[in-house]
Amino acid sequence: MNDNYLKVARLAAAAGAEILLSYQGRFSVREKAPRDLVTEADVAAQQAIQKILLSNFPDHGFVGEEEGHDQVSAEMLADPNHPPIWIVDPLDGTVNYVHQLQSFAVSIAMYHRGELQLGVVHDPVTKEIFWAQRGGGAFLNDCPIQCSQSDRLDQALLACSFSAGVRHDSGELDRFAAALDQAQAVRRLGSAALNLCYVAAGRLDGYWATCVKPWDVAAGAVIVSEAQGEILSLAGEKFDIWDPRFVATATKSLNDQLRRCLA
Ligand code: IPD
Ligand code: CA
Ligand code: CA
Ligand code: CA
């Protein structure tokens, strides 16, 4: 693949990260829906990222969480000749960011010919940049990373994400309770993208979500796969970025156990 894609994705992620840091503690916040926040920084970072990507690749598609860029048409996906589509979350972990909890990231992925081709997740606070290109392995800054060897659910450290509107009587909590019963421990860190990168780096053994959007997990999904992890739909089928309800784990055996546990 064109190495320039990765270079520009990393530049765009760094520009977004710088904007997030520059706004910290000083931004307006509004609710898109109850408990679903967006700040001025989310929007400014997305605008800067979009400008960098599309000025370098004017014919490419762009999907981003904010400002009405959140749709991709069925025709775009069905067309094998459609130019690459960038999938961007300018700030994954907005609630953490608003509360000055230092766990959030910029997430940029590229999708082309039915596959995710690359992913970059940039943590502005720790300066950790997780990245991968399809077939090229996964990296943290300049070092190759790999998932853990974990293949026992009772010894696994897991994380999961809930939707902003999660309710006590939803299936999301039933799955959480089942995992609490069977895993070593379960965390909720507040950034889907970072959760996936932590699986890729061996810091977590597994992560699942049933309510996230493509931009939350597109970059992290490539990074986990390239770190030798297993990412499958909840039903055990090929992961589909346009329907991201999935289980990502260090090993195939752990994936089987966790999917059975969540079923
Ligand atoms: C959210 C985070 C969170 C997950 C939510 C996402 P945002 O993304 O990834 O971990 O639980 O479902 O919406 O809104 O902070 O970009
Ligand atoms: Ca959001
Ligand atoms: Ca997100
Ligand atoms: Ca976001």
- How large a portion of the residues is in β-strands, by DSSP E? 25-35%
User: For this structure, what is the CATH homologous superfamily of the largest domain?
Assistant: Fructose-1,6-Bisphosphatase, subunit A, domain 1
What order do the strands of the largest sheet run in, or round the barrel if closed? 3-4-5-6-7-8-9
Give every kind of bound small molecule, once each.
Answer: D-MYO-inositol-1-phosphate, calcium ion
N/C terminus separation:
38 Å
Number of discrete helical segments = 8
Name the CATH architecture of the largest domain.
2-Layer Sandwich
Percent of residues in helices comes to 25-40%
State the low-pLDDT regions, or none: none
Mean pLDDT: 95
CATH class of the largest domain: Alpha Beta
Task: Give a short account of the largest sheet.
Answer: 7 strands, mixed
Shape: globular
Write the layout of secondary structure elements.
Layout: H1 3-23, E1 29-33, E2 36-39, H2 40-56, E3 61-64, H3 74-78, E4 85-92, H4 94-98, E5 105-112, E6 115-123, E7 128-133, E8 138-140, E9 143-145, E10 157-161, H5 171-182, E11 185-187, H6 192-200, E12 206-209, H7 214-226, E13 230-233, E14 246-249, H8 252-262
Parallel strand pairs: 3-4, 10-11, 10-12
Antiparallel strand pairs: 1-2, 4-5, 5-6, 6-7, 7-8, 8-9, 12-14, 13-14
